[in-house]
Write a structure and sequence with these properties.
The protein has 242 residues and is of the alpha/beta class. It has one domain (5-236): NAD(P)-binding Rossmann-like Domain (Rossmann fold, 3-Layer(aba) Sandwich), CATH 3.40.50.720. Helix content is 42%, strand content 16%. The protein has six helices and seven strands, in the order βαβαβαβαβαβαβ. The chain has helices at 22-33, 45-57, 72-85, 110-138, 159-179, 212-223; strands at residues 13-17, 37-42, 61-66, 91-94, 141-146, 184-191, 233-236. It has a seven-stranded parallel β-sheet, sandwiched between helices. Helix 1 (22-33) packs across helix 6 and helix 4 packs parallel to helix 5 (159-179). The longest helix is centred in the middle third of the chain and has 29 residues, at 110-138. It starts with 12 loop residues before the first strand and ends in a 6-residue tail after the last strand.
């Protein structure tokens, strides 16, 4: 793994939710390759350990910590662990999310709605509430929220998912204004269909779809830009329609 000390990430701590697989794992690998310590968080221990081991083998630094973003107590434990071990959080990537593509909204069970909205939106609130004070104290930081083009466009049979991502976009833009004075940059990345396990992509060519590394590239761009500016939103599409 190449150490890009000039990128400014060397010695920084990056917390990545949903870090065991897919986009989160790709972001962890990318930021660790730029010198950051990748703190991979998620509900499943095995994928977290596997991704952390791969990063370490490649010469990077990674830590795997179990956490459920919709459980406030779990977030409190995570925050305490990170504060004790590192004493800082420079980058927070809110990536943990689930899909909800089971049909029209009027047939959706309320518990399924709660699961989607709690994971995709409430979980981001919990994480920002936990880690923003550490960034404010340090006078710097990056928060990157992984949204979706479904937060910009209609998504029939996925209304709950779209609602969570439209909400996440509004949250991101508003929190960005709240934290700018503290030298904290809040950005949102809205990819189209990404070749992951999150949702079915029937009829689409995986080779033409966005890959997790494409999203990781966008995140790396956001957290390495010059200090006098910030990119508030990235819309990411495949070159060829899959």
């Amino acid at each position: 793994m190449t150490d890009h000390a000039g990128s400014g990430l060397t010695g920084q701590v990056a917390v990545i939710t949903g870090g065991g697989r897919g986009i989160g794992a790709a972001v962890g690998r990318k930021l660790a390759g730029l010198g950051a310590v990748a703190v991979l968080c998620g509900r499943g221990r095995a994928p977290l350990d596997s991704t952390a081991a791969a990063i370490t083998t490649a010469g990077g630094q990674a830590e795997a910590l179990e956490c459920d973003v919709i459980n406030q107590q779990s977030i409190d434990v995570l925050t305490a662990n990170i504060s004790h071990k590192f004493g800082r959080v420079d980058i927070l990537v809110n990536n943990a999310g689930i899909g909800g593509f089971g049909g029209p909204l009027h047939r959706m069970p309320p518990e399924a709605w709660d699961q989607v909205l709690n994971t995709n939106l409430r979980g981001v609130f919990y994480c920002i509430r936990a880690f923003a004070p550490m960034m404010i104290k340090a006078g710097a930081g990056h928060i990157v929220n992984i949204s979706s083009l479904a937060g910009k466009n209609a998504l029939p049979n996925g209304a709950a998912y779209a609602a969570s991502k439209w909400g996440l976009n509004g949250l991101s833009y508003s929190v960005a204004e709240e934290l700018r004075a503290h030298n904290i940059r809040v950005s949102v990345v809205c990819p189209g269909s990404v070749n992951t396990e999150l949702s079915p992509h029937a009829g689409k060519d995986p080779a033409k779809m966005l890959q997790p590394d494409d999203v990781a590239h966008a995140v790396a761009m956001l957290v390495t830009q010059a200090p006098q500016s910030f990119i508030s939103e990235v819309l990411l599409r495949p070159t060829q329609k899959p």
